[in-house]
UniProtKB/TrEMBL annotation:
Main localization (coarse): membrane
Membrane topology classification: Multi-pass membrane protein
Protein name: TRAP transporter small permease protein
Family membership noted in the UniProt record: Belongs to the TRAP transporter small permease family.
Molecular functions (GO terms): transmembrane transporter activity
Native source species: Halomonas sp. H10-59
InterPro entries (alphabetical): DctQ (IPR055348), TRAP_DctQ (IPR007387)
GO cellular component terms listed in the entry, alphabetical order: plasma membrane
Feature: compositional bias, Polar residues: 1-11
Segments crossing the lipid bilayer: 60-85, 91-113, 141-162, 182-203
Region annotation Disordered: where it falls in the sequence: 1-46
Subunit structure: The complex comprises the extracytoplasmic solute receptor protein and the two transmembrane proteins.
Length: 223
């Protein structure tokens, strides 16, 4: 006598070929989620600014961040022209260097404005609010003095890049076949950035002298 074949099993039968019923699938849980926020992506903390001037710096820096995207776009254009059409450009490389340099220059004022600069807070977190205020005053004073000295040094550098030995206005150029005045422009941007930071540090110093504490940095640091 021939054993029953699997072809004799009716469709939709709850038994498998060996004649055993399939394992029951686990029932989906219909209970409430104990932690509704667990599935949410944590939002980035807003930037902490200490003055209206800082808020303006942050907004300008947000627009300046697009310079990196422009640098990437023209770099792709250079690759296509060089390797796809055999027509390399003479301006892309120097333009990319200038755009990235400008974005880096504005990164300093943006970090100082939004309180996202790198700090060592071991002592700061270990003391009380009154001593923290004195630390704020000391930090702001040192920052202002440093930025003031950097502004003077940047002015000397920019003056040498924008004037010839006779004292006449003449921008320093790259010396390549295209020969743009980007070296002088970048040095001028460095001067602008450290001068902005000098104003920021002075405003912060005045605020700390008046007894206004520095705001806490947002969670996550400089992300």
């Amino acid at each position: 006598m021939t054993p029953p074949s699997s072809h004799n099993t009716p469709a939709g039968s709850p038994h498998d070929r060996a004649g055993r019923p399939p394992d029951p699938s686990p029932e989906p849980s219909h209970g409430p989620n104990p932690d509704p926020s667990a599935d949410r992506t944590p939002e980035r903390a807003p930037d902490v600014v200490r003055s209206r001037f800082d808020r303006g710096v942050v907004r300008v820096a947000q627009f300046a961040a697009w310079l990196v995207f422009i640098a990437m776009a023209i770099s792709v254009y250079e690759v296509i022209m060089r390797y796809g059409f055999g027509a390399p450009t003479s301006w892309v490389h120097e333009t990319v260097v200038m755009l990235v340099a400008v974005s880096f220059c504005l990164g300093g004022p943006a970090a100082l404005a939004s309180n996202r600069h790198i700090r060592v807070k071991v002592l700061y977190d270990a003391v009380g609010p009154r001593f923290r205020l004195w630390l704020d005053r000391f930090n702001d004073l040192v920052t202002f003095g440093f930025c003031l000295g950097m502004t003077y040094a940047a002015w000397v550098m920019f003056y040498g890049a924008s004037h010839n030995p006779l004292g006449e206005w003449q921008l320093e150029r790259s010396g390549t076949s295209w020969n743009p005045p980007f070296p002088a422009l970048v040095k001028g941007m460095i001067l602008t950035a450290v001068a902005i930071m000098c104003v920021q540090a002075l405003i912060h110093l005045i605020q700390s002298i008046k007894g206004k504490p520095a705001p806490d940095a947002p969670e996550g640091g400089a992300d």
